[in-house]
């Protein structure tokens, strides 16, 4: 990729706090216009990486380029063209929706007239037209999140850095955010998002990087990763002794993982597995397509904590 | 290392204004309560001590005790309003409210934020100090013109104590630690720096020590102005207050950098 088509480039980035390695020899590139996901459980180093891209944490080693600027040295210049959706809402609760946008626009050196010119389209984008003069403390969680998203767009950024954009939202509010993010991608924005929701990563991301303990354990397109690492149907079995069941179905499975009381059986012909289990009382059997959850389980031997 | 410190310093001479305006907008919503709250304490002291103690004390340095005390109260209210704005309100914006975190994701640097907070706290000092001054004028203890002369010193006093409080909040893990600064630094200063009695009443060795305290320099500038007397060594006092503003300003940014931008 030539420089002008690269939005983010990390090379050999390391960071440790108090002797604990948080990010370990991490390298990845994000192309302009791409939605790139950092997927991993809590403590995988996702937020640290997101903050590093903004120059809020300095790496111990390695190089970071964001929008052609070296970070953290010229992070301030890079941030002029970045919109940030932080993990925890940091809106001004005593201010109205409109005042939040006004105050934030001024942090980018925008004049009141310039801010007022973009506010209507931002309110429309965030579906908050009727809430312009409502105080933020009166808004629902989903509305606050959408206002944070609108706020991140005030400087018309090329790149959006989003740390867990839908954590803590109900499914309806989450789907609305996803739909809004797809609109932004259609407009050509680049998005880097961190998430521990497999579904979010699968639906939104063109490519993603699976992290565990600060290390990259896989990178690629979601469907390719699923195909490469799993590539067959999944039968989830619970309600029995997983170790005894494992022996029973082993001949028909390509691979078996046990996590807690659930047995994940990866089998090209799931009917054969089901036949083996027929007539056993108390068993619950679920057959489904493979997803990123299975990739994570396959790579780490454990389920992603929710 | 030097490069990374340069990256967090104020960007230019005007970026901080956006932070000041944010605080002004928040303050406008509670302005009346804020003004009354800031005035109650110094006015209670002024009237309580001024009339009560004034009866016993009589004249001090050739003026009525309440006129003497009024100048000290102007300096003290400038000190306390900048201190409290920084200790409590700025700390909340840095910590629980995550306001600074939001600002740090924009074009502004840590230095821009700290500078904006300092000027804001000094603005509140000007408001509080001038209000006490106006009360003194109304009661006939000072002239309107003298209040105008004291305003730059009130503003500088606000910058000094905002800057010092900024160091305190950069180091303090929580609100609980502020009380040490209040009881061990600020309260003794009120009694040592010539607010309620002339520093000449202190033992000789103490007087040298008091010459190092910022509030003493503020009082030595404000009192002669309000009593319409000549100010001794004005340049020295202003220089001392400037040092007390600038050094803590840079020190606090360095500590905040370690705390907020690791």
Produce a short descriptive summary:
The complex is a heterodimer of chains A (about 300) and B (about 260). Chain A is α/β, with parallel strands linked by helices.
Word description of this protein:
The complex is a heterodimer of chains A (306) and B (262). Chain A has helices at 46-53, 75-79, 97-107, 112-125, 141-152, 171-186, 198-204, 222-229, 242-249, 270-277, 292-300, and strands spanning 6-17, 20-31, 35-39, 61-66, 69-71, 82-85, 159-163, 190-195, 207-212, 215-220, 233-238, 255-259, 262-267, 284-288. Chain A has 306 residues and is α/β, with parallel strands linked by helices. In chain A, the strands form three sheets. Chain A has a six-stranded mixed β-sheet, sandwiched between helices. A four-stranded antiparallel β-sheet of chain A has the order 2-1-4-5. Chain A has a four-stranded antiparallel β-sheet with strand order 12-13-11-14, with helices on both faces. In chain A, strand 1 and strand 2 form a beta hairpin. The longest helix of chain A is centred in the middle third of the chain and has 16 residues, at 171-186. Chain A is globular. The model of chain A has no long low-confidence stretch (mean pLDDT 92). With 262 residues, chain B is mainly α. Chain B has one domain (2-260). Chain B contains eleven helices and two strands. Chain B is 77% helix and 2% strand. Chain B starts with a helix and ends with a helix. Chain A binds chain B through residues 17, 54-58, 72-76, 79-80, 82, 84, 86, 88, 90-95, 99, 103-104, 106-109, 155, and chain B through 3-4, 7, 11, 15, 18-19, 21-22, 25-26, 29, 97-99, 101-109, 260-262.
């Amino acid at each position: 990729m030539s420089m002008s088509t690269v939005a983010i480039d990390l090379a050999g980035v390391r960071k440790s706090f108090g002797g604990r390695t948080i990010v370990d020899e991490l390298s990845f590139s994000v192309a302009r216009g791409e939605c790139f996901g950092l997927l991993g459980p809590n403590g995988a180093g996702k937020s640290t990486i997101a903050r590093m891209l903004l120059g809020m944490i300095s790496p111990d080693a390695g190089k970071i380029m964001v929008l052609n600027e070296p970070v953290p040295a010229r992070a301030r210049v890079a941030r002029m063209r970045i919109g940030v959706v932080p993990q925890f809402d940091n809106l001004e609760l005593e201010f109205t929706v409109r005042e939040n946008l006004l105050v934030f626009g001024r942090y980018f050196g925008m004049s009141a007239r310039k801010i007022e010119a973009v506010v209507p389209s931002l309110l429309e984008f965030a579906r908050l037209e009727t809430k312009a003069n409502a105080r933020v403390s009166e808004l629902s969680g989903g509305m606050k999140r959408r206002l944070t998203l609108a706020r991140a767009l005030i400087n018309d950024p090329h790149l959006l850095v989003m740390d867990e954009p839908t954590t803590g939202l109900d499914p309806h509010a989450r789907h609305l955010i996803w739909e809004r993010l797809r609109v932004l991608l259609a407009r050509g924005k680049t998005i880097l998002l961190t998430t521990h929701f497999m579904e979010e990563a699968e639906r939104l991301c063109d490519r993603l990087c699976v992290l565990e303990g600060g290390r990259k354990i896989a990178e690629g397109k979601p469907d390719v990763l699923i195909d490469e690492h799993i590539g067959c149907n999944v039968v989830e079995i619970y309600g029995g002794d997983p170790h005894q069941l494992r022996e029973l179905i082993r001949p028909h499975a390509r691979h078996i993982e046990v996590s807690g009381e659930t047995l994940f059986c990866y089998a090209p012909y799931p009917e054969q597995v089901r036949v083996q289990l027929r007539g056993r009382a108390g068993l619950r059997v679920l057959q489904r397509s493979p997803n990123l959850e299975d990739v994570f389980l396959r790579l780490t031997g454990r389920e992603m904590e929710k | 290392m030097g490069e990374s410190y340069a990256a967090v310093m104020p960007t230019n001479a005007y970026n901080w204004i956006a932070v000041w305006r944010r605080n002004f907008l928040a303050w406008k919503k509670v302005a009346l309560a804020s003004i009354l709250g800031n005035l109650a304490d110094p006015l209670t002291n002024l009237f309580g001590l001024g009339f009560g103690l004034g009866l016993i004390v009589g004249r001090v340095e050739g003026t009525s005790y309440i006129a003497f005390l009024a100048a000290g109260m102007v300096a003290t209210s400038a000190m306390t309003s900048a201190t409290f704005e920084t200790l409590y309100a700025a700390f909340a914006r840095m910590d629980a409210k995550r306001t600074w975190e939001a600002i740090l994701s924009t074009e502004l640097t840590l230095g821009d934020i700290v500078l904006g907070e300092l000027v804001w706290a000094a603005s509140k000092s000007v408001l509080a100090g001038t209000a006490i001054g106006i009360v003194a004028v109304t009661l006939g203890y000072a002239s309107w013109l003298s209040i105008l002369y004291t305003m730059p010193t009130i503003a500088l006093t606000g910058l000094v104590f905002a800057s010092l409080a900024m160091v305190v909040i950069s180091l303090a893990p929580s609100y609980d630690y502020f009380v040490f600064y209040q009881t061990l630094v600020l309260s003794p200063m009120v009694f040592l720096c010539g607010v309620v009695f002339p520093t000449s009443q202190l033992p000789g060795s103490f007087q040298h020590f008091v010459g190092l305290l910022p509030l003493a320099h503020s009082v030595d500038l404000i009192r002669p102005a309000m009593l319409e007397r000549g100010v001794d060594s004005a340049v020295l006092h202003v220089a001392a207050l400037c040092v007390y503003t600038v050094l803590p300003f840079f020190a606090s940014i360095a500590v905040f950098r370690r705390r907020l931008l690791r």
